[in-house]
Fold Cytochrome P450 family 2 subfamily W member 1.
Amino acid sequence: MAFFMPFISDPALICLLCALLLLGAFYFSPGSKNSAFKLPPGPPPLPIIGNLHLLDIRRQDKSLLKLAEKYGPVFTLHFGSQKAVVLTGYEAVKEALVNFTDEFVDRPPIPIFEQIQHGNGVFFSNGELWRTTRRFTVSSMRNLGMGKKLIEEKILEELHLLIATIKSSRGEPFSLKSFNAAPTNITFLMLFGDRFDYKDPTFVTLLRLIDEVMVLLGSPFLHFFNFYPFLGLFLKTHKILLKKIEDVRIILRNYIQISKQDLSENSLSYIDALVFKQHKETNKKDSLFHDENIIASVLDLVMAGTETTATTLQWAILLMMKYPEIQKKVQEEIGTVVQSGSQATYEDRINMPFTNAVIHEVQRFITLLPHVPRCTSVDTHFRGYFLPKGITVIPSLTSVLLDKTQWETPHEFNPNHFLDADGKFVKKEAFLPFSTERTKQT
């Protein structure tokens, strides 16, 4: 008790303590917040931890679905001291991302990504920097052949090399990670201007680093660092992650430097296009194409443009093994449309409705991207609630892809979700594996 006597006897400290207690009582009182600011309802938060005790940190998407059953499609949740508004179900998520695009366009500051990108790049920037970088990235990718015949030819070439690699196993078991190489090489072709041999040391190193970074990003310790950044003094996971990211940056800087030494308006890669744009704006005051944004933009595409496709392929193979009858039907359809000795093309998908349905169902079923956090760019009224500027908004994509009002058997792998009564392919509006086209996906 003697320890507290100096504090109790100081009137200024007593006033400060009372103020902090009142502030804490106001902040953690659900009634006061919801009545004053009209935030959506939600579970009452506990001091310090908020609602973290209600979450499975490894599968937050599942926890959000369970909470939505009690609190409805729009509810407030406290991740530690951080308030967030969670949106679940197709109707609520679509309304937010389509009808409130401008209001929900920004990204919230996530501590680990702040340390990695410092507000630069394609995915974790905001405002004019994001708009300019995204617009340039989309335009550059189209110029490099994305969505055109040229890139399709490159994909077919890579496919033959992948098939050769599979055949070299001579029927023996091999790691599914072998399937990472082909889609990653297509991404690298557009980023660097050339593909890698599968045994190239730089290629092998990049694949390893990307895989290790993705594992670390899913670590519970990293989530706790994002909830409580001060824990960085005691946790090591984010430090290990930052070191691996820096190893990737070293490789990227080398390619950027090579591009700077051979400037050309006829860009052969995304890096070339960025470097030439920077060169053109050398004398432009406050140009957004500075070195930090260039390397951040390339890093974004290296990480996001490789892991998603590779993981989807691995899941597709796993699901075909689990459902051999579906695999057989896919094989029969492909065999009917693509003649022996010929190659399947993107245009053939029109005549392969079942195969197309299977590809879409794989993406729906695995819910690869549970949610993409956003924050309000302005004070916003949404569904009768007031969302102040800067509050985090979490549209649950998992809840959309598993919405029982949109899918007959949401928890089953069922390609019929994308087929009509006549067996024709139908792409449903609720198919949002990577958010909506009008939002911040590149």
